Amino acid sequence: MSLESLLIICLIGAIAGWLAGVIVKGHGFGVLGNIVVGIVGAFVGSWALGMLGIAIGGGIIASIINAVIGAVIVLFLIGLIKKA
Fold first, then answer.
1. What value does the CA radius of gyration of the chain take, rounded to a whole number of Å?
2. CA 69, 32, 30: angle at the middle one, nearest 5?
3. Residue 23: enclosing H or E segment and its boundaries?
């Protein structure tokens, strides 16, 4: 993995984590936490959308949308676990 692709993954993760934190209020984890949630969300989002047969498209915008959907799911699950 090149440095450029690693930076792109971190940028997409940061944007997706921040957007998911805004959507799911009260579950932000700071900059590094949001990057981690965004990266994990990218995997969860691509898996969940693939299972549903939904293809958003290609490019960086589609990657951010996939990651945001997955990060919202991850934050929702973390919120459920914290309440239990």
1. 12
2. 80
3. helix 3-23
* Structural domain contains residue 2: no
Q: Read off the amino acid at residue 41.
A: G
The amino acid occupying position 65 is I
For residue 42 the two structure tokens come to 């990218």
Instruction: For 26-73, write each residue's pLDDT tens digit.
Output: 656 777 777 788 889 888 888 888 899 888 888 888 888 888 999 999
Residue 77, SS3 per DSSP = helix
Instruction: Please check whether residue 12 is in contact with residue 45, taking contact to mean a CB–CB distance below 8 angstroms.
Output: no
Residue 1 counted as domain residue: no
Range of the domain at 20: 7-83
Q: What is the pTM of this model?
A: 0.83
